[in-house]
Specification:
The structure holds 2 protein chains of 2 kinds.
Chain A: H1 9-26, H2 42-59, H3 64-75
Chain B: H1 4-20, H2 26-29, E1 30-37, E2 42-43, H3 46-54, E3 60-73, E4 76-87, E5 91-94, E6 97-99, E7 105-117, E8 120-128, H4 130-136
Parallel strand pairs in B: 1-8
Antiparallel strand pairs in B: 1-2, 3-4, 4-7, 5-6, 7-8
Classes of the chains: A mainly alpha, B alpha+beta.
Chain lengths: 77, 143
């Protein structure tokens, strides 16, 4: 997912924080905490996703090629 | 074997399809075993690329694409592009973050380096301005 027209996740997080901080600054208030970014811990996400892919691969739902591509995507390589 | 004009047209189609999510175009633009890289992700097959494109279907409309410079070196085509498109549908920015249509006009610049096998793209690297995308979608403060 997201080879094009999608920013890298760290950039998205920076953008979310910057947008909120600027609103607070302009309002003359103390910056609020970063906006709720609902992603779970990356490690947990990654492991769960890899396990899911492995199950789909073992069941035959994913070909070797599809599995390799999906795994690379999850690992960000 | 395609001439430079044909390959430039294929590169243009590849870019347009990448924006509009026209996965059907992948069939004649890319080889089965195409491998691609962008700052965000990689793909290792046309099937994976088509699935990736499918995720952007309907997100952008009124696509205005210009190829500012196209150079061909052997089987490699280097295209510098400018894009303007309207964010008119849901856009999946992350696995858990979908941005609903903002109606904003997004302007981007980038470079696509495509290596051809015959008349289809077999390898590509795609560099583009991620910050401009965030700005265009209104996800960054203006100052």
């Amino acid at each position: 997912m997201g080879l094009f027209l999608r920013p890298r996740r760290p950039l998205l997080r920076v953008a979310a924080g910057a947008a909120t901080a600027t609103v607070a600054y302009k309002a003359g208030q103390a910056p609020p905490p970063p906006p709720a970014y609902t992603a779970s811990a990356p490690g947990t996400d990654t492991i769960a996703e890899l396990e899911k892919l492995a199950r789909l691969h073992e069941s035959g739902a994913l070909s070797d090629e599809e599995f390799a591509a999906a795994k690379a995507r999850v690992l960000g390589v | 074997m395609s001439d430079a004009g044909d390959r430039a047209a294929i590169v243009r189609k590849a870019l347009e399809a990448a924006v509009t999510g026209d996965e059907a175009a992948a069939e004649w633009v890319y080889t089965d075993d195409v491998a691609g890289w962008s700052p965000v992700a990689t793909v290792a097959s046309r099937e994976a690329l088509a699935a990736d494109m499918r995720g952007r279907k309907g997100a952008f409309s009124d696509v205005d694409l210009a190829l500012d410079a196209v150079d061909e070196v052997g089987d490699k085509v280097i295209a510098e592009w400018r894009l303007a498109a309207t964010h008119s549908g849901a856009l999946e920015l992350d696995e858990d973050f979908q941005l609903e249509a903002t109606g904003r006009r997004v302007e981007l610049r980038g470079v696509l380096i495509a290596e051809f096998e015959g008349d289809r793209i077999n390898r590509f690297r795609h560099y583009w301005d991620e910050v401009a995308l965030l700005e265009g979608l209104g996800l960054l403060p203006k100052d």
